[in-house]
Design a protein that fits this description.
Layout (H helix, E strand, L loop, with lengths): L6 H19 L2 H4 L10 H7 L15 H10 L7 E4 L4 E4 L11 H4 L8
Antiparallel strand pairs: 1-2
Amino acid sequence: MAKEPSETRISSRLADLRGAFADMSDQSHDAGWSFLSDGGEPAPLIVAYDWDTSPLGSLQSWSPALCATLGLILPARAEIVLFWGPDYVALYNEAYAPTIGNKHLRALGRPACEN
């Protein structure tokens, strides 16, 4: 089982990434990450996440279908969670985060059966 990142470490990393992500959004189209440009709080979390520990694999290897779907759900105001792939890996928008309470940071990018 993969080691769960601490909330403090993620919160600290998120703060560090906010400025970098703002700069990156101009270049996100070139990097193939344009689906993250309006992604709210989850966008920098997705960029910072160690996807090698997830069944989805590296962010660069994600399918166009997954990227397009996230591009639709991340900026939505409705609470939306997406369970992707045979392991039902959880990806969700900012509106959904309060719904899962203290599971918020550890659920992102992990199979549904772990949470």
